[in-house]
Amino acid sequence: MMSDSKSHAEIPILDMSKTLDSSSLSSLIKASKVWGFFHIINHGISKELCSQLHSISKYLFSLPSETKLRVGPFSSLKSYTPHFIASPFFESLRVNGPNFYVSAKSSSEILFDKQDSKFSVILQEYGNKMEELSKKILRLVLMSLGEGIEKKFYDSEFKNCHGYLRINNYSCQEIMENDKVEGLGMHTDMSCITILYQDEIGGLQVRSNEGKWIDICPNEGTLVVNIGDMLQAWSNDKLRSSEHRVVLKHIVDRFSLAFFWCFEDEKVILAPDEVVGDGNKRKYKPFVCLDYLKFRENNERGRFEKVGFTVKDFAGINKAHL
User: Fold this and answer.
1) How many domains does the chain have?
2) Residue 10: CB partners within 8 Å, gap ≥ 6?
3) From first to last of its 322 residues, what are the pLDDT tens digits of the chain?
4) Domain span at 197
5) Cis preceding-peptide flag for 98 (omega within 30 of 0)
6) How far apart, in whole angstroms, are the C-alpha atoms of residue 248 and residue 172?
7) How many CB atoms lie within 10 A of CB 287?
8) Is there a domain that residue 177 lies in?
9) How far is CA 215 from CA 10, 182, 212, 253, in A?
10) Which EC class is this protein assigned (predicted)?
11) Helix or strand run (H / E) with residue 125
12) Dihedral of the CA atoms 32, 33, 34, 38 (nearest 10)?
């Protein structure tokens, strides 16, 4: 149990329908370096589509545990993460791109007695929109690193990125008055960027540079974007992959959709000289993306903090060696 947080993050809002002007660029630079989080609006994801996904997901997670475990960790698909893997209060279904329809169908054929393509069709639509949105956001984030960075490095460094989706459900049977339960422990994301839809329940918190937990409250019509470990390393820490967590404040299920836009597994991550900058020292040794993913999977900090380690633990150059 943890005492209640009363702080809220005033993170910038980026309008995806408008050209990035100097004011918006300045806000994006600050958001990416200080918080590692920002909101986006006019992103092209309709309220109706999110509502459809929410409705289908409610049915999915209401299925008996033995049914969901047919695609669990010991199945051939391994698409479902049950309670007590990452947290006692967290469960999730993974859908892989680029063919989200096929990935969703593989799970739905096992989970649902009555076969209906609606689940797969909706996830294909959402996944496709997320892919296009991720590309746009990544270009803007690269622009925040300096003039010419996006133009020079987007195609050469990021053209083989891929995405996957996690449908998340958080549930808690009992919460003490004035307390809250940690639904998912402190972690950073192993992506370049993550795009999150969270329902009105909220619960997402980001850790500030001072170590305080700050609420990122849900706003209707907005999505949350955060920088991941891969982009932090590629930018030589000019972009921040912030530690964050989910807290449960109410005895009601919390729903979220997280889309992770990632480097290809064989990608060697090394910040370009132009990004490091003249006179600056490298903060990371070169590393292969898949090696870092395996490191995170095989190292734990505490019972439920499988994601407690970060890219600095894996590839950071010790200051004593600089």
Assistant:
1) 1
2) none
3) 333 344 566 788 999 999 888 888 888 988 999 899 999 999 999 999 999 999 999 999 999 999 999 999 999 999 999 988 888 889 999 999 999 999 999 999 999 977 778 999 999 999 999 999 999 999 999 999 999 999 999 999 999 999 999 999 998 766 545 567 777 888 899 999 999 999 888 889 999 888 899 999 888 899 999 999 999 999 999 999 999 999 888 777 889 999 999 999 999 999 999 999 999 999 999 999 999 999 888 765 444 444 467 899 999 997 433 3
4) 13-315
5) yes
6) 7
7) 18
8) yes
9) 9, 13, 10, 18
10) oxidoreductase
11) helix 118-143
12) 0
pLDDT at 88: 86
Tokens, residue 199: 């329902």
- Cα–Cα distances in angstroms (integers) from residue 280 to residues 28, 150, 271, 285, 322, in the given order: 22, 20, 12, 14, 11
10 Å CB burial of residue 120 (0-12, 13-18, 19+) is buried
The answer to whether 189 and 262 have CB atoms below 8 angstroms apart is: no
Q: Does residue 20 belong to any structural domain of this protein?
A: yes
Instruction: Report pLDDT for 48.
Output: 94
- Domain assignment present for residue 265? The answer is yes
- Residues 91, 96, 99, 100: what is their CA dihedral angle, to the nearest 10 degrees? 20
What is the Cα–Cα distance from 39 to 204, expressed in whole angstroms?
A: 13
CB-CB contact of 286 with 270 (8 Å): yes
The span from the CA of 90 to the CA of 168, in Å, is 7
75's tokens = 């199945």
> DSSP character for 302?
S
The two tokens of residue 300 are 């734990």
Query: Does residue 4 belong to any structural domain of this protein?
Result: no
What DSSP state is assigned to residue 35? Answer: I
The owner of tokens 């132009």 is 274
Say which CATH number the domain at 116 has: 2.60.120.330
